[in-house]
Amino acid sequence: MRQAQRDPAWVRWSLILAAVSVVGVLIVIPVVHVFAGALSEGVRVYWDNLVADPDTRHSILLTLTVVPLALAANVVFGIAAAWAIARFRFPGRTVLTALIDLPSPSRPWWRA
Questions:
Q1: Does residue 79 sit in the same domain as residue 44?
Q2: Do both 47 and 89 map to the same domain?
Q3: Are residues 64 and 94 both part of a single domain?
Q4: pTM for this one?
Q5: Are residues 68 and 84 part of one domain?
Q6: More confident residue, 103 or 82
Q7: CA–CA dist 79, 73 (Å, integer)
Q8: Distances (CA, A) of 59 to 37, 50, 51, 109
Q9: Which of 34, 81, 89, 103 maximizes the CB count within 10 A of its CB?
């Protein structure tokens, strides 16, 4: 029998409940709040503001243009970096791994 199945049922269910609660608090509640605020004056007002405003249309078009390009670049460079790190030993490998693991700052340090 695997180690995870040896735990009492109440421990497993408590951990599952804790994980679902965290997801609910950090993801579901904010998303519902955003949609509730956006649709507070009705779906028609939301749709009119979405379609009628040229700035909104431009930002949607820009997003739909940039996201596939960024996704393709991330896939290509991510696979190349993963392959190089997993397959080879080279100078700077530790630095490359550290740079990949660093979180991207919401505000760059040079603009602080």
A1: no
A2: no
A3: yes
A4: 0.53
A5: yes
A6: 82
A7: 10
A8: 20, 10, 11, 26
A9: 81
Which pair of tokens denotes residue 51? 């379609």
Q: Buried b / exposed e across 4-28, counting CB within 10 Å, b at 16+?
A: eeeeeeeeeeeeeeeeeeeeeeeee
- Its domain, for residue 43, covers 1-52
Q: What is the pLDDT of residue 106?
A: 67
Place of tokens 């190349």: 80
Helix (H) / strand (E) element for 70: namely: helix 54-87
Number of domains in the chain: 2
| 48 neighbors 40 (Cβ within 8 angstroms) | no
CA torsion, ordered 58, 59, 61, 67, to nearest 10 deg: 160
The verdict on 62 and 10 lying in the same domain is no
Q: How confident is the model at residue 4 (pLDDT cuts 50, 70, 90)?
A: low
Q: Is 58 found in the same domain as 36?
A: no
Tokens for 99, please give them.
């740079």
